[in-house]
């Protein structure tokens, strides 16, 4: 059970009393009559064969307040796409599978590439971006939520809690971020959030002072969660990274576009577990190593747009400050884990801190070496201005794929 403490510059909605999920869903069904809801599921084909997604779909199938579900399917050939259509057919809601690797959606992507408007690299950000474009053209949804497809501890309460703040017509929130404790199987998880993001933000405050943007990011209890919800109008101007900086990039964008009293976070799960990335200490292009570099670059870029000046000496100071702050956090988490009877491998924790410290410098050097880099996928407003027919063509491509292969 969470506390009721409000800290930071955004509102926190706590899970104080464990309301019955049926009670929440009854309210959401009433909200849906005024504010239709849609769910985005960005999925790799491999997740259809994993332990989590079948249960997730079984849970979603029981939800009556969702009008439609949009699934972005990555890394699938034709046979796998056909299988995906059958896999998701158990959903009673309207649902649409975007075969991102199919020839029709590849042709859409090539049109955007010709104008310099396509996502630069494959990944979750690209997947989510195309799902958003589809919803903007084909859907009447006014409240939209997104969550990952590898959640091993999924239940319908997570979805109800996530939708409620943006679906309730009496609330004024435009965007809501889900949070939870990354604790499962007697272990404390979530190393990138615990050991990179929070210590990095505290270190940047030591160096640059309490900048509003840093205070804002530090207000989120789990800034890297893949679960968030928003009103429809948020989608049109949203520019998101296509790399592992997606979650930080989304938070930065809503901070740019909205007052903080329009943003909130909500407790969506007492227990949350999903697949874990390896540390990949020997390969900066995979695992938590790549993730840490992409996230650090996303934060550095945003600070630069706010007038912060970086150079090589700055990044060396950031590394030194971060290292000390992060090691203090390791001790705090060790004590917290022991107090709760959880296991925490001190050696692995400090290994992660050492890698993240090195990667802060790598991220900084990459940032300095590529000052003209445009890391964000363009907003759908810009795409529609440059290619007015593209979203309707995207919708038709999805329809044609379904007709041809179902």
From TrEMBL:
SUPFAM superfamilies xref list: Nucleotide-diphospho-sugar transferases
Recorded superkingdom: Bacteria
GO molecular function, one term: transferase activity
Keyword Transferase: yes
Sorted UniProt keywords: Transferase
UniProt protein name: Glycosyl transferase
UniProt xrefs under InterPro entries: Nucleotide-diphossugar_trans (IPR029044)
